[in-house]
Predict the structure.
Amino acid sequence: MSGSARHLYVHLPFCAHRCGYCDFVTATGRDDLHGAYVDALLRELHAEHDGRPVETIFLGGGTPTYTARPELLRLLRALPPTHELTVEANPETVTAELADALGDAGVNRVSLGAQSFQPHLLDVLDRRATPADVERAFARLRAAGFDNLSLDLIYGIPGQTPAHLAADLAHAVALGPEHISAYELEAKPGTRFTIAHGAELERQAEQMEGYFECVVETFTGAGYRWYETANFCRDGKRAEHNLGYWLGRDYLGLGVGAVSTLGGERRRNTPKLARYLRGHCDREIERLDSETRARERVMLGLRLDEPLPVRGLRSALDAAGVARAERLGLAVDSGETLALTRRGRFLGGGVTAAILA
Amino acid sequence: MEQARIRNFSIIAHIDHGKSTLADRILELTDAVSAREMREQLLDSMDLERERGITIKAQAVRVAWKGHELNLIDTPGHVDFTYEVSRSLQACEGALLVVDAAQGIEAQTLANAYLAIENGLEIVPVANKIDLPAADPDSTAVEVADLLGDDPARVLRVSAKTGDGVAAVLDAIVERVPPPAGEPLSPARALVFDSSYDQYRGVVAFVRVVDGTFSSREALRTMATDTRFDAEELGVFSPAMTPVEQLSAGEVGYVVTGLKDVSRLRVGDTLTSVRRPAEHALPGYKDVKPMVFAGLFPTDSDDYPELRDALERLKLNDAALVYEPETSQALGFGFRCGFLGLLHMEIVRERLEREFDLDLLVTAPNVAYKVKERNGEWLEVHNPAEFPPEVEEVEEPYVAASIIVPKEHVGAVMELNNERRGTFGQIEYLSPERVHLTYELPLAEIVLDYYDQLKSRTRGYASFDYDVAGFRPGELVRVDVLVAGEPVDALSLIVHRSFAYDRGRLLVDKLREEIPRQMFDVPIQAAIGSRVIARETVKAKRKDVLAKCYGGDITRKRKLIEKQKAGKKRMKQVGAVEVPQEAFLAVLNIGQGQRS
C-alpha cells in the first residue's frame, strides 16, 4: 500500500492503430478487452491507493479516448478526487459528446496529440488526424468549457523543412492553447521507423539545433513561458502532473507497463497485456539510493526555469564542473540555488553531465 | 688452427638478394648443422627478422672447409645499422657480395660494396638466383665487375636455393680471401663487433681477435669505455656456443663478460688484457648517436609501468636505443626515444607491441636539431616541444642518398627530391637501362613518407640507401597547434619555413574535423611563435538536451546523462576543451604521412 503518492498516472494502452515512431506500451485490435482492462486497473488502484485525494491524475496511453466510452467513464468515476485531471486525446477521437462526457466526469485538462499541421508529415508519422480534426477537437473542447488545453507537437519529422516547422508553430500559437509540449522526434535505433527513414533522420538531426531555437523563440515571443526544456505555458498553467516528475516527487503508475517511483524504489509493471489482465504486475524493481535520487533531482530540476534548491544535493554536484559552467555563462550558482542561464538551458543535457559529481 | 688456415668473411647484399639463404647452404654443405637441425635461415634468430627477411643483429659462425677454418660473420642488412655493418666488416678480410641475377645491383649493394672496399676487404662477387627464369647472370656479372673493377668471369654463378655453385663459393673464399694478418705474440687486442644479452650470463661480446691471445678467466678491459671484467668463458660458434680455453689472433668467437648493462660494452670498442694491455685501440670506434626521435605513449595510461619495463629489457640487447621519460599533456606519461633510423624505430615499436603486448601511440618522428639560442649557446633538441621559440640559427642533419632506378623514372625521383629540399649530386648509368642518382637530403624530409613515395612514384622499382652526412644550417621553425589558446605539446612540429603554412593548415583542418563540438566556440590555431598561420573554429553546440522526460523514462534518461558524463571523463583535457584521444591519433597519423 503506497497511499502517500500525490500523483497518479493511469495507462490506457488501446489504440486504433500503432504509429510508426511510438515506443509506448500500446495494444491494437483488442477492443474486446477494454472492460477487462479497466477491471484490472481498478484492482490495482484499490490495492495501491487508499482513496485519499491526490494532487494530480494523468490518463496517458495509448489513446485513452479510444477506450470504449462506458469503460473510460467507469474508470474516471472510480478515481480519487484531484485538482488536475488530464486525459490525453487524439484529435480525431474528440466528438462533442466525448468533450461533454469528459467534462462531466471531472476531467479538467486535455492534452491533444496534434504533432503537426502538415498532412504529409502526419502521414509519415502514421497519424490519422487531419489538421482540420485538430481545429475541430479544439473548438469542441472549448465549447465544453475546457480552459486548460495542451497541444503536443513533434519536430524533426522526416521531410520536414524549417518552413513547415514555422507554419506548425504559428498554427499552434493561433489556436491559443494554455500549454504546449514540443518534442523532437526520438527515433529509437533498430526500429522499423528508424530503418525506413535512416538517412533523412540524420539530416533532420543536423537541423534539430535550429529547430529547437526556433521553437523556443516562437513560443516565448508569443508570450508563453518556457518553463521546462520541452514545455511552454501561459497564465501559469503548467502541467502540474508532469511538474511532479520534474520536482522529484513520488508518483504511482497504474496499468500495463506503468512506472511508479515510491520511496526508494522505482518499479515497472509488466508490459504484457495478457499478464496484466490476469492480475499480475510482475514488477521490475530498481532500488534508488539517496545518491541516485539526488542525481535525478539535479537532472530533472535543471530542466525547469525555476532555480533548483540545492540543499542536500551538493554531494551530487561536482564543484569544479559547476564553477566551469558558471564561467562559461551556462549556470548561476547562488549558493542556495542552481539555475541554468538561457544558453545553459539549450545545452541542458551537456551542462548536467558536466556538473554532476 | 694456424692463422694461415683461417678465413674471416661476411656476406653483403641488398635486401632479398639471398644472403641468408646462401648462409644456410654454406652451413649445410660444411656439416655445421645436420639436416634435422637445419631450419631455414638459421642465422636470423629473431622472429621479426625471419618475417621481414632482414637481419637485425649480426652473428657469427665457424665452419670447416677443406682443412680451413671459415668464420662467417653475418651483418645487418640495413642502412640504420651502417655502423654495425662496418664493424662486422672490419672483423673480416673478405666479403661475398651477393647480387640477385634477376634484379642487378641495387642501392644497398652499392652502399655495402663501398663499405667493404673502405675496410680493405677482398670482395668475392656472387650472382645469385641463377635458377630464376628472369635471371640474367651475364649482365649482372658485367654490372658487378664494372662496379668492382673486376673481371666478369670471376663473378660466381650460384643458386643458393638449389645449392648450385655453393661449393665453388667456399673454394673461392679459401683461394681469394687472405688469412688474418695479426701479430700472435703482441699484447692481445680484439674488436667487439656485436654483443647480446643473456639473462643468466650477462653481456656476451662477439669478438674478432686481431693480435695476441685471450685466455678464459683472464681480467679484461675495453679501451674506449674502460669497462673492466673477467672473461667468464671464451668460445666459438659452431654454430652453437662452444667453450674454448683460448682465442688467438685471427679467430672469431665470444666472451662471456658477466656485465649487466649492454651499454658498457659498445660495438666497435677494443678489448685488451689488463695484465698486458695493448698500447693503441683498434681504429674506427664511434659513439653511435640516435638520429630519429619519437614519443612513445601507452594507449592505456595504466600500461606505463609495462612500457618502462619493456624498454629496459629491449635496451639490454640494443645499445643504440635511448629513451627518457616524457610527459605530454595530451598523451599522458610516456618516453621520448631515440633511434638510429626509421627501420630501427619500427623494429623497436613492433617488438614492444609484439613481444610485450603493448598498445602504443607513437608521435610523428623528428630528427635531432642543433639550435643556437639568442644567448649564443648551442643545444641539441630531440623534441619539438623543447625547441626554443626564438633562435639565432638552426642546423639539421643531412643524408647522402643513393637511389638506383630504371631510367624512365629518373624524372619522378628528381621531382620528389626537389619537393623534399634535395640537392642533386650526380647521375651515373650502371647499364643502358639503370641509373644511379645521388642527392643530399635533409634527414627530416625522409623520416616521414619518403620511402613510400619513392616506391609509389617509381612503381616499386627504385632502391634507396643513405648515409648520414652531417649537420647543415636550415630555415627551420617550430609550428605549434593551439586549441582554445592552449598549445597541444604532442602536436608541435619543426618544419622548414616554406612548408610551415601547409602543414599548419593540414593539422588545423584535421583537428577541426576530429574535435567534437563543445559548449563554447573552440578556436584551433597553428602558430609560429605568436604569429598565427592557420585558424579554424569548432563552433559551439547550440543544443544539447534530452527531448522529453516523464515518469516512465527517468531511469533511462539518467543513464544517458551518466553515459555522457563517463564519456567526458575519458576525454583528454586541453584547457577547458575535451578532446577524445582518437582526435590526437588521427592528427598524428597525418603527421606521419599515413605511413603503413
